[in-house]
Amino acid sequence: MEKNMKISTLLATFLVALSINTAYAITEIRNTQQAEKMQLESMGVVGTTVVADTLDEAVEAIKAKAEKQGASYFRVIGAKSYDTSPYWRISAEIYK
Q1: What residue range is the signal peptide (predicted)?
Q2: DSSP letter at 83?
Q3: Which domains does the chain have, with CATH numbers?
Q4: Using an 8 Å Cβ cutoff, are 70 and 32 in contact?
Q5: pLDDT at 24
Q6: What is the pLDDT of residue 12?
Q7: Rounded distance, CA 8 to CA 74, Å?
Q8: From start to end of the chain, where are the E strands?
Q9: What is the rounded radius of gyration, in angstroms, for the C-alpha atoms of the chain?
Q10: Do residues 86 and 51 touch, judged by C-beta distance below 8 A?
Q11: Which of 79, 76, 81 has the alpha carbon at shortest distance from 92?
């Protein structure tokens, strides 16, 4: 009986952890052909200006914004670093 209880508890913990990790996952796609092949529906475009040292940091910022909008996928469509400052302007098309 105790063994079954441990297995049930372990299984429940695993399922909760799995649902938490997948519930908030957002994926970057690389091009419109990929979006079309996956039959994704565009939700529009989001953009932001962020303080970031690298393009990767700017992408993480737009990823977070897309996720807040309820998107499951995003595609960066523009990114510009301002040479004399730590700012990046980045935009992405978001999909569900």
Answers
A1: 1-25
A2: T
A3: 28-95 (3.30.1660.10)
A4: no
A5: 60
A6: 47
A7: 37
A8: 27-28, 42-51, 73-81, 87-95
A9: 19
A10: yes
A11: 76
- The model's pTM is 0.72
Contacts of 3 (CB under 8 A, 6+ apart): none
The amino acid that residue 31 corresponds to is N
Sheet of 73-81: strand order equals 27-28, 73-81, 87-95, 42-51
Query: Contact, 96 vs 71, CB < 8 A?
Result: yes
The per-residue pLDDT for range 81-92, each reduced to its tens digit, is 988 789 999 999
Three-state secondary structure of 12-61: HHHHHHHHHHHHCCCEECCCHHHHHHCCCCEEEEEEEEEECCCHHHHHHH
What single letter denotes the amino acid at residue 85? S
